[in-house]
Structure formats: structure tokens, C-alpha cells
UniProtKB/TrEMBL annotation:
Cellular component annotations (GO), alphabetically ordered: extracellular space
Protein name as annotated: Protein-arginine kinase
Substrates-to-products reaction catalysed: L-arginyl-[protein] + ATP = N(omega)-phospho-L-arginyl-[protein] + ADP + H(+)
Source organism (scientific name): Cytobacillus horneckiae
Keywords, in A-Z order: Allosteric enzyme, ATP-binding, Kinase, Nucleotide-binding, Transferase
Single GO biological process annotation from the record: phosphocreatine biosynthetic process
Pfam families in the record: ATP-gua_Ptrans (PF00217)
Assigned protein family: Belongs to the ATP:guanido phosphotransferase family.
Activity regulation field: Appears to be allosterically activated by the binding of pArg-containing polypeptides to the pArg-binding pocket localized in the C-terminal domain of McsB.
Length: 359
């Protein structure tokens, strides 16, 4: 399969599209946790109860159509190969927990993959809306629409005093997790992130790596999300996150301006060295690829490099993950073989940019 055809099939909307402030904000995500009334939570339910949740979803939901998103496709985790589940996880469409641990788990996906509804993860239902750029309120609006649509068919576990009931106490109340994925190389290179992260934590927010809790901030990509779900409305939670992200955007732009003034030639040299590595390498590990991709994306945003799509970072940070590399190769690969395949895929992707420019 050609890389172009593979990408057309593999790249989600958030990876290939640009949104507001997309030079810094890669994506905005809203997730709502919901459970079915009078059914044990997934943390303690039986296999029979798990199957009943799936049957309820199949009977009441998949025959429906949700507005502009069209039909939802039901994917049963026990019918997917481990590699297929890993690819879904690498695309941020399902969680690591659903991919690796969930019994009788499933996922409902829209064709453009902006909406993903996980079933029998930590909760019976987790609605996820994922949009390119800084579109948190738009993500929240769509999540509310889907939530209302589901609630017409399903009785949620809800308490008048505390709100939506969830498996984890930290999600009780709104059941809302709002997160924004940001590319912050300026703040990292100016050594400000170590100071900023504790300050953000004190505001009831948390900063994590590209794949959420427990993951590393590869390629200077960070996820900023809320920790508090109880005692505030969904709108207030979103607005708090929007306020902090807006400050981070401003600080990142100031850091990039400072680098351009004080270290312009060094920064330009760093960008082009990374570009040269990606264009010519024959073997490259995940961390080095992420660092070089971050440098090249920064070079594109600061106009050192022209004629290359900004979305190349979004695409290649996902397409060069182990699951995708093995899917593209058509079978399992050992770690060193993945490093070779990663280098080849990156070179091919950059060559595609030259061809589109007529070079």
C-alpha cells in the first residue's frame, strides 16, 4: 500500500485539519462519563452484565443516526486483533484501558472519527469529542448534543445531590474531562515548563504527556486537563481550562519571540539539523523522531521552513507509533525493525510534500 493511500485511511480529522490557534493547540477533547441505571459499574460487574450493556447499546443506539456525523459503527474489542486496538489507541479514539483491560468492551465511531463512544471502559459509556485546534466549547456543545441523544434511549445513573454517578469518585458530578493537547517547545527550550506545571496543578488542572496519565511528553506535546468534576458546572470547568490554555498560548508565543531575538541562529540551526535528520535517517527511535518532529514543526510555525504542512507533526507523531508502523508494514515488527520502518515512513512523508510542491 502506498503511504498516501495508507494516510487517507489512517489519518483522523483532528490530525489532518487546522483549527483556531493550531500553531500551538493541536486538539481539544471533551469526555463525558455515564453509567446505566441499576447496572453494576464495570469495575465490579459480571460478564453477563457486561454483555447486557453491549446488547442495550446495540438495540437502542446503532440503528440511529446522529445529525451531521452520520451512522455510528460499533467495534467490539474482542473481535479486534491486538494491533487494531493499539492503532485505535494511538489515534486517541479509545483509551489504553479499553484496548488492554476491558472485558466485553466496545466503541462506537463516527466516520470522521470526531466522535467516539467507549463502552464498558471504566464506566458503561464514555462520550468523547475530539476537534482540531482550540475548540473546547465546540467540543462541549457537540458532547452535550450526543449526551442528550443517548439519554433519550438510556436511563443514566444520576443522583439529584451529587450528579452523575461514576466508577471513580474523581469523576462524580459532571463526569466531565476536558483536555487540550498543546505543542510547547518555546516554554521547554526556555526552561519555563518546570515552573509552570506546579502552578497549573494548584489551579485544579493537571499536565500530562501525549497519551494522558502516566505517559511522557514526547515531542514537547502536553495535555492540559481538569481534575475537578464535582461542585462546578460543565461550562465553568471548560471556562477555567480555556483561561489557563489561553495564558499558555500567550506565554508560548512570547517564549518563541524571545528565542528568535536572543538565539535566532542557534534555533534555526537546530530546526534544520532536525529536518536533515528526518529527511535522511535510515534508523530512528521514537524519542529522537518526536524531538526532531517538534523542532521541524516549530521551524514551520516560525517561518524558518516553508512549503511543508503544519499538520505533519500531528500526523507523524501518531503514524510513527508502534501500532501504526506494524499496520503499515502488514505484520509484527521487532523494535529495531520498527526504527527502520519509522525512518522510512518519515522520509516518504517528507518526499510527498516535495512532490505536492512540484519539487
Amino acid at each position: 500500500m502506498s503511504l498516501e493511500k495508507f494516510m487517507n485511511q489512517a489519518v483522523s480529522s483532528w490530525m489532518s485539519s487546522e483549527g483556531p490557534d493550531s500553531d500551538i493547540v493541536l486538539s481539544s477533547r471533551i469526555r463525558l462519563a455515564r453509567n446505566i441505571k441499576q447496572v453494576n459499574f464495570p469495575t465490579i460487574f459480571s460478564n453477563e452484565e457486561a454483555k447486557s450493556v453491549i446488547e442495550t447499546i446495540k438495540e437502542r443506539i446503532t440503528k440511529s443516526t446522529f445529525g451531521k456525523f452520520g451512522d455510528l459503527e460499533l467495534l467490539l474489542m474482542d473481535e479486534l486483533q491486538p494491533l487494531q486496538k493499539r492503532v485505535l489507541m494511538e489515534k486517541h479514539l479509545i483509551s489504553p484501558h479499553l484496548a488492554e483491560n476491558a472485558s466485553y468492551g466496545a466503541c462506537l465511531l463516527t466516520e470522521n472519527e470526531e466522535v467516539s463512544i467507549m463502552i464498558n471502559e471504566e464506566d458503561h459509556i464514555r462520550i468523547q469529542c475530539l476537534f482540531p485546534g482550540f475548540q473546547l466549547l465546540e467540543s462541549l456543545r457537540v458532547a452535550f448534543e450526543i449526551d442528550d441523544w443517548l439519554e433519550e434511549e438510556i436511563d443514566y445513573a444520576f443522583d439529584e445531590k451529587v450528579g452523575y454517578l461514576t466508577s471513580c469518585p474523581t469523576n462524580v458530578g459532571t463526569g466531565l474531562r476536558a483536555s487540550v493537547m498543546m505543542h510547547l517547545p518555546g516554554l521547554v527550550l526556555t526552561q519555563q515548563m518546570n515552573r509552570i506545571i506546579p502552578a497549573i496543578n494548584q489551579l485544579g488542572l493537571v499536565v500530562r504527556g501525549i497519551y494522558g496519565e502516566g505517559s511522557e511528553a514526547l515531542g514537547n506535546i502536553f495535555q492540559v486537563s481538569n481534575q475537578i468534576t464535582l461542585g462546578k458546572s460543565e461550562e465553568d470547568i471548560a471556562e477555567d481550562l480555556i483561561s489557563v490554555v489561553s495564558q499558555l498560548i500567550s506565554q508560548e508565543r512570547s517564549a518563541r519571540e524571545a528565542l528568535a531575538k536572543t538565539s535566532n541562529i542557534q534555533l534555526e540551526d537546530r530546526v534544520y539539523r532536525s529536518f536533515g535528520t528526518l529527511s535522511n535517517c535510515r534508523v530512528i527511535e521514537t524519542k529522537e523522531a518526536a524531538r526532531c518532529l517538534s523542532d521541524v514543526r516549530l521551524g514551520i510555525d516560525m517561518n524558518y521552513i516553508q512549503g511543508i504542512s503544519k499538520n505533519i507533526l500531528n500526523e507523524l507523531m501518531v503514524l510513527t507509533q508502534p501500532g501504526f508502523l506494524q499496520q503499515y508494514a502488514g505484520g509484527p515488527l521487532r523494535p529495531f525493525e520498527r526504527d527502520i520502518r519509522r525512518a522510512s515512513l518519515i522520509r516518504e512523508r517528507l518526499k510527498m510534500e516535495d512532490q505536492e510542491l512540484g519539487g
